[in-house]
Amino acid sequence: MERSSLAGRGQIAQLLRPASIAIVGASEDQSKFGGRLLRMVLRHRFAGTIYPINAKRDTLFEIKAYPDFSALPAVPDMVVLAVPQPAVKPAIEAAAKMGICCGLIITSGFSDAGDAGREAENEIVGIAREHGMRLIGPNCLGLISAANRLAACSSPVLEIPELPQQPIGLVSQSGALMTTFFDRAWSHGIGFSHGISVGNQADLELADFVEFLADDPDTQVICTYIEGVKNTQRFIAAAQCARAAGKPWLAVKSGRTEAGSRAAFSHTASIAGDHAVFAAACAEQGIVLMNDIGAMMTLAASMVRYPGRKVERLAVYTPSGGGGALACDALYERGVPLATFSDATRARLDVHYTHAQTGNPIDFGARISPDAGEAARATVAALQDDAQTDGLFVPVTMAPFPWLREIVLAQPSPFADASGARGSAGKPVLFAVEAGATSEPLRGLLREHGVPYTNTMDEAVAVWAAWRRFGQQRSFETPVRPAGLPAASAAPASGIYDEERSKALFQQYGVPVNAGSVALDADEAVRCATRTGFPVVMKIVSPDIVHKSDVGGVAVGVADEPAVRDTYARLLANARRAVPEARIEGISVQAQVKGELELIIGARRDAQFGPIIVFGAGGVLVELLAQRAIASAPAGADRVLALLETLPIWKILDGYRGGRLAVDQVVDAIVRVSWLAADLGERDFELDINPLIVGKTACWAVDGRLRIA
Ligand code: ADP
Ligand code: MG
């Protein structure tokens, strides 16, 4: 028997386009996975050859069935397994030996079911690898490829006459969510090229399928539902593939809420948790992270309809003043700006509306022109021509259908000519249809014309906001190691570093710190203070007290010699009271610096993404403020500055309270900390500088802590 033509190529692109499939567990019994799956494969008219394998039947749904692999007349490209768990291994063994190069395993009860299952899973992966066979699943819902008319999936959502096809690919770590996604999309008139449920990812993983879609001529936009990243390198490589192919990668990830705050040594650990780091990695890799699968689906459909468009400023065009006002509020909250129309646009609109109505939003209900069609056409044309408008948002509350019809018909068609060739789709248009059943005719019309819509304002605004973020992506220069740093190989010792020790290390990396020294008695404290210059700050020094103010261990504004003596005694007493067993190493006497703003700069090694830095509003309220930006380390000055500009405190840095603060020095300090983080590299560590006090011309790290495992 001929070995499958796909064998050995190792190309997933080939695996996912089988010319023939065998289905083990095929039957007519609709209470079984294999029964429903076979019916769906037939229903959607898979163009290749189908080999049902069933020992008891000669035919199934009138096509020939085979008792086992050895009876097959040729080697199929793919085998689909929907059999009880114990039957999977022998079937994979037989299939692999025969030379079948792809196995799709629906069956569950593997690593999803504990240690014994994991062992069984490893065994089948081992068998497959030995024979060069690749596996999808196990524990997945299968594959739905409109591009191949292959519906290898048992879900009832497939009870539709035809698989709608559009250049949107989907990879999902949840099988059920994949089918929900399809169902919902189809009811909005949105189709797909391929949908893959990856299951346990025993062999092929999400990143493999993203790479496949990045290469796939039938796919322009990639959607993913992610629960966890299996292999970070592969994930990042897949993102690079998608970028290189110019295909947007959209993602929804579960596990957004951090499971409990960690009992934190550093503030960094509590403000830069796993999801925040994942989100930062997505931003760096150009992956558009969203919260909701509905919004992801609508954005994908919109990007397909309006390819290559960037969205910045929107025109809101509405048949309802109320809907328009709510839309403007929601856009404002998500940071999506409204367009300011040019005088020429206003003059064109003034023909149809009172001048008060031709700002933004435009209220169609308040038009003066009697002909709704003419007003709608003129308005859409004027907005399409307006150079300061990037998209049209049409929030629809209850309004007469004839008006709405005119607004829909006025949209330029993506199909410019009768031949069906793709024409200019114009600027992006999105409807938010808030009403219920009464708006079904409108939804039908929108589907018929391929105009994207959502059923809620929130979802629509989420789409616009994500689209805008996608358009704002920029690339940054490769970070260059600043001069004067210690050699990357000069590894700092492991351990817990208190303020003194960590500041000494930060200083070696060129981060400015305030002057100070540790006194062992009150006389020495006075000498230190006199040398430093009054007023001074005094702090308890103890390896057992990490958060010094919490135990009354910090005094600022210590003005003269008697105050130094008083404070010395008080800080010791406070520390002994709060942590009686604490080892106390003295009292730090340091220069008091005066600034306008307190920042935090932190870093840690993330188990998944490696060394990262975090920075934002600092001081004792850092967790409450939770204003932070995260980047992988090392980070260059351009990236750090761009991230700083996204933070609310940027306004203060930029001179909200008077002159601009020492922004360049802050950026430099963050860059230097990122190099320290990069040098600590593979070791588990966490560090904080909190606060970095920022003045008009300089900044200083006045507190620090570091733990290196
Ligand atoms: P903690 O261990 O509680 O974080 P810090 O050393 O950060 O102790 O001190 C607490 C606060 O005291 C800082 O957030 C800052 O507002 C202020 N502070 C500490 N050191 C100085 C200093 N050298 N100059 C000015 N203010 C300081
Ligand atoms: Mg502090």
Q: What topology does this entry show?
A:
Blueprint: H1 12-15, E1 20-24, H2 33-43, E2 49-53, E3 59-60, E4 63-64, E5 78-81, H3 88-98, E6 102-105, H4 115-130, E7 134-136, E8 143-145, E9 150-152, E10 168-172, H5 175-187, E11 194-197, H6 206-215, E12 221-226, H7 232-244, E13 249-253, H8 267-271, H9 274-285, E14 287-290, H10 293-305, E15 314-318, H11 321-333, H12 343-350, E16 362-363, H13 372-385, E17 391-396, H14 401-410, E18 429-433, H15 440-449, E19 453-454, H16 457-472, E20 495-497, H17 499-508, E21 516-519, H18 522-532, E22 536-541, E23 554-558, H19 561-578, E24 586-591, E25 597-606, E26 610-617, H20 622-625, E27 628-632, H21 637-646, H22 650-653, H23 663-680, E28 685-694, E29 699-701, E30 704-708
Parallel strand pairs: 1-2, 1-5, 5-6, 6-7, 10-11, 10-12, 12-13, 13-14, 15-16, 15-17, 17-18, 18-19
Antiparallel strand pairs: 3-4, 8-9, 8-11, 20-30, 21-24, 22-23, 22-24, 25-26, 25-28, 26-27, 28-29, 28-30
Helix pairs in contact: 3-4, 6-7, 10-16, 11-16, 13-14, 14-15, 18-19, 21-23
This protein binds adenosine-5'-diphosphate and magnesium ion (MG).
The site of magnesium ion has 2 residues, from loops.
The N- to C-terminal Cα distance equals 58 Å
Structural class: alpha/beta
Order of strands, main sheet, comes to 9-8-11-10-12-13-14
> What bound compounds does this protein have?
adenosine-5'-diphosphate, magnesium ion
Structural key phrases:
Rossmann fold, single chain, binds magnesium ion, seven-stranded antiparallel sheet, Acyl-CoA_Synth/Transferase, 20% strand, seven-stranded mixed sheet, alpha/beta, Dna Ligase, domain 1, binds adenosine-5'-diphosphate, 4 domains, flat, 23 helices, 709 residues
